[in-house]
Task: structure prediction
Amino acid sequence: MSTAPAHSKVVVTKGTHELAVQQRPTPEPTGRQILIRIEAAGICATDLHLIRKSIPYLQPKVDICGHEGIGRIVQLGPDVDAQWKVGERVAHRWIFRWCGQCEMCKEGNEQLCDRRELSGKDVDGCWAEYTLVDSNYLLRIPEEIDPAAAAPVLCAGTTVYRALKTAALAPGQWVAIVGAGGGLGHLAIQYAKVQGLKVLAIDGGQEKGKMCEKLGADVYVDFTATKDITSDITSATGGGAHGILVTSSSPRAYEQALTYVRKRGIVMCIGITPQKMTFPIGPEYFVARGVRLTGTSTGTMEDTREALEYVRSGLVKPIVIEKSLEDIAGCLDVLEKGDAVGRYVVRL
Result:
């Protein structure tokens, strides 16, 4: 029997700029579904893109966003495998389910599955007191991790951790992190440092600079204060960054990255620009410099497990600003302005 109430709170989108907290019937799990009581849920820039409908391929079919959810199982559907028990702490992730049959899935890249279903886009997200997950695609969360600290790792932490794995930089090499003071960037600094990399953090303002340096950044560049960001970074790194993680959604950030990446370096695209952009270079740039340009979208379930382990061990500590369901709209406004420091997380 479920201990969930008949009705519970959810945050719903109304248009592209309005959110509302409503009481809706608490969903009932069927088949292999599991009902979980959310303890913490992150607020991500991807949620902002979904609500604003600013990205052509991210047009939502549902009106409940949120994809960094941590909660406890309160009810099992009739077909759920015996390995899952009421009371266990589990995750509601961005990649809600995948096909398991396509080329990407068989290669272990389920995050790129063409038939994947996404939380807050294709199925109801976790900005709610109660939400459903599919037990066939479910991740346990270690009890030692506070749910508010675990939530940002499900998307933000996994994304930058996967980006660093893909970049495959060697200890002692330089990684530049654009948007280093934000929800993804501050985690990227920490994951980079535990991998032995030198970190050049890029963001705007002294407050973010102090935070980046406290997290271990070797150099901080304030893009609002420098007169020549290319010269500053090239000088600080002795020839340019070996790898660049662009977590910012600014087209200018991408354009600048191409000017300070080292020869044979790699630029990792993470932030999605709301407007279409074109890189101001031709093939000759890559021919002459051997630069690699690629990107990453979140990561696999195994990536998330590995990223969480760094948090469990204390090597990575998400900076969390706790909010309520009623605060989400205001948090999105701050994200849209690029002023967020750390990660907003709703604590329920």
Notes: The first strand starts at residue 7 and ends at 14. Residues 182 and 341 are 5 Å apart (CA to CA). The radius of gyration is 20 Å.
